[in-house]
Design goal:
Helix content is about 35%, strand content about 15%. It is α/β, with parallel strands linked by helices and about 375 residues long. The chain folds into 2 domains: about 170 residues, NAD(P)-binding Rossmann-like Domain (Rossmann fold); about 170 residues, NAD(P)-binding Rossmann-like Domain (Rossmann fold, 3-Layer(aba) Sandwich). Helix 6 runs parallel beside helix 7 and helix 11 crosses helix 12. The chain starts with a strand and ends in a 9-residue tail after the last helix.
């Protein structure tokens, strides 16, 4: 199969769909890989690194799309990239379609086969291709929150870990999944006063055991979210409904009652955000203020540490890339129902139920 890797063009996005070791696995099996010139430079991977493992270099994205059967990316295709997608293409990347009607419409119109990393599952019902970036984003959320609390960035001037004789900052994490547990790990490590909310008692029990009661666990209700957020220095939104838009658990009224200079980091912004006051921002301009609360809502948070993120993502995606290249999309999905769960758009139809419901499309089951 001919596999193409274009350079990412989203704001401050330096990750790349395939690292040289992944390319080597593909070319050793007889597949051809074409990489856009300079696509890996942002994380220190040169064109020579790619040609050394059998890839060819294309001068621009148009050449990559023209030559490739499968396009492997990291972020959702931007408008100029969507215009290059054709019926014969297989697109494998993060999509996050539920809050993005324009992207969904253009992918449907392209007729391409579009498999989203974030809805591929495993035997335990987990999301193995979302997990690596959720780990990174969860850890980064505390770094971003701590920096945003600095007075020069509009924050209240609270040091999360405190100092002897001064209370530590209060961190509230909404959601005890991969994002939440990684955020908790960083916040506890800094010495903050940490509370995790979740609607699953089993999740709360696991977190309590994991941290040996070094944090607080609270069952998530409207009342507990409101009470804890209002008293927090830093709130991290890490909720996820696979494939669907994030629920708006943090209302405008809660934001209005939070302390001046407190911080809200919305890791769920890729799926529309979990606050009524959330809107996507970029690494160029990551923060804005609503009702004296600093909001950090960068839609590609792991892009801040692109080298770590790229290698972590490739560890998870490579087996699926190999299966798709070896078997083609239909056979690979027929052999692996978990990969089939990743199919969001196929031949002009929406094949992911939550996306169809969120955007008003007729749902078409994935091909068996």
């Amino acid at each position: 199969m001919q596999i193409g890797v274009p350079k990412e063009i989203k704001n401050h996005e330096y990750r790349i769909g395939l690292v040289p070791s992944s390319v080597r696995e593909l070319t050793a099996r007889g597949h051809q890989v074409v990489i856009q010139q300079g696509a890996g430079l942002g994380i220190g991977l040169t064109d020579d690194d790619y040609t050394a493992v059998g890839a060819t270099i294309a001068p621009d994205a148009a050449s990559v799309f023209e030559q490739a059967e499968m396009i492997v990316k990291v972020k959702e295709p931007q408008a100029v990239e969507r215009a290059m997608l054709k019926e014969h293409h297989l697109l494998f990347t993060y999509l996050h379609l539920a809050p993005d009607p324009d992207q969904t419409r253009e992918l449907v119109d392209s007729g391409a086969c579009c498999i989203a990393y974030e809805t591929v599952t495993d035997a335990e019902g987990r999301l193995p291709l979302l997990a690596p970036m959720s780990e990174v984003a969860g850890r980064l959320s505390v770094q971003a929150g701590a920096a945003s609390l600095e007075k020069a960035r509009g924050g209240s001037g609270v040091l999360l870990g405190g100092v002897p004789g001064v209370d530590p900052g209060k961190v509230v994490i909404i959601g005890g999944g991969v994002v939440g547990i990684n955020a908790a790990q960083m916040a506890v490590g800094l010495g903050a006063n940490v509370t995790v909310l979740d609607r699953s008692l089993d999740v709360l029990r696991r977190i309590d055991l994991h941290f040996d009661s070094r944090l607080n666990t609270v069952f998530s209700t409207t009342e507990s979210v409101e009470r804890l957020c209002i008293d927090a220095d830093l709130v991290i939104g890490g909720v996820l409904i696979p494939g669907a838009a994030a629920p708006k658990l943090v209302t405008r009224d809660i934001i209005r009652q939070m302390r001046m200079g407190s911080v809200f980091v919305d890791v769920a912004i890729d799926q529309g955000g979990c606050s009524e006051t959330s809107k996507p921002t970029t690494h160029d301009d990551p923060r804005y203020v609503v009702d004296d609360v600093v909001h950090y809502c960068v839609a590609n948070m792991p892009g801040a540490v692109p080298r770590t993120s790229t290698f972590s993502l490739n560890n998870a995606t490579l087996p699926f890339v190999l299966a798709l290249a070896e078997k083609g999309a239909l056979k690979a999905m027929a052999d692996d129902p978990h990969l089939r769960n990743g199919l969001n758009v196929y031949q002009g139809k929406v094949t992911q139920k939550e996306v169809a419901e969120a955007l008003g499309y007729d749902y078409s089951p994935p091909p068996a």
